[in-house]
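Hi support team,

I've been running sequence recovery on a batch of backbones for a student project. Most finish fine, but this one hangs at about 90% for roughly twenty minutes before it completes. I'm not sure whether the input is malformed or the queue is just slow. I've pasted the structure tokens below so you can try to reproduce it. Let me know if you need the job ID as well.

Thanks,
M.K.
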């Protein structure tokens, strides 16, 4: 999925300490490739394998080489570089940008950015950021929370109480990720990350009350930008036939990743926030290797097996 320099800028301006030097009006240039390129060979005039569809990074090596050239040769080499229709330039270590680059950038409509980061650190961090921006993503129904470090997605029919349950969890000190509509993407590690749409981020809809701004009411600790998803909780009206052991946990597949899923029956007088909190704690124990249902099942089987052996003897 191709993105623009503007999208990279929006996501990385803080994380990568970026500032715009010139060409802000050209940030809509497309970035067909998410890797970085250092144009060392291109500055010598070799363009056979030049990655012109990538961000061009100017660091110590590039500027040292340019200083070794005469003014005329420097302009000639830089002009040949800009003629390749590069999408953008990032100057590292907060170096002063030569006037030749600024003039050519304006002429060829190329944005020029700068960062105080060391070149290698910037390349590594920006590559991760671009991979995140171009990763496959989906939009699903559900309210996402982080409870004791566990990412929880609450699902259920409209009016079942997802937002009310989330509100109770916020009052207990946990964090809201998104309400009702959640964006998800799959990471390179095979994990699902949840976050909120930019328009609805930090807001909740409470039936009978309307829209509330969560951090204004509960403080900045009540919200988080994103979280990795650990468990899906489906809220459903009680039928009286629900699983009471948890020995055979369900799984739900999101973007090809299997996520543990539990179904919680909703009925009058039941503290759903408390049960979701316990479900998150229980999932945390499972990740640490402690499965209460399985351990109890093993104990019962061992006791029954031992009783048969004694009885047979």
């Amino acid at each position: 999925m191709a993105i623009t320099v503007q999208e990279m800028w929006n996501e990385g301006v803080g994380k990568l300490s970026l500032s715009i030097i010139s060409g802000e009006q050209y940030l809509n240039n497309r970035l067909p490739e998410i890797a970085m390129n250092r144009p060392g060979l291109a500055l010598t005039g070799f363009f056979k394998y030049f990655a012109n569809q990538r961000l061009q990074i100017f660091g110590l090596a590039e500027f040292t080489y340019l200083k070794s050239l005469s003014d005329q040769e420097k302009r000639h080499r830089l002009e040949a570089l800009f003629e390749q229709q590069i999408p953008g330039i990032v100057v590292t270590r907060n170096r002063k940008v030569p006037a030749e680059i600024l003039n050519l950038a304006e002429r060829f409509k190329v944005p020029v950015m700068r960062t105080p980061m060391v070149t290698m650190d910037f390349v590594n961090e920006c590559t991760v950021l671009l991979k995140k921006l171009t990763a496959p993503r989906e939009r699903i129904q559900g309210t996402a929370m982080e409870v004791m470090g566990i990412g929880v997605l609450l699902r259920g029919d409209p009016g079942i109480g997802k937002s009310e349950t989330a509100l109770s969890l916020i009052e207990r000190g946990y964090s809201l990720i998104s309400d009702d509509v959640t964006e998800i993407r799959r990471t390179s590690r095979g994990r699902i990350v949840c976050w909120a749409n930019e328009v609805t981020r930090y807001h909740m809809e409470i039936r009978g009350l309307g829209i509330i701004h969560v951090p204004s009411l509960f403080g900045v600790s009540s919200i988080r930008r994103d979280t990795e998803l650990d468990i899906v909780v489906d809220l459903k009206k009680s039928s009286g036939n629900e699983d009471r052991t948890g020995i055979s946990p369900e799984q739900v597949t999101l973007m090809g990743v299997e996520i543990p899923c539990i179904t919680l029956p909703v009925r009058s007088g039941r503290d759903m926030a408390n049960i979701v909190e316990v479900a998150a704690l229980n999932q945390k124990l499972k990740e640490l290797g402690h499965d209460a249902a399985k351990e109890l099942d093993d104990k019962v089987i061992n006791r029954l097996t031992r009783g048969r052996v004694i009885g047979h003897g």
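--
Follow-up from support: It reproduced on our side and the slowdown came from queue contention, not your input. The radius of gyration is 27 Å. No action needed from you.
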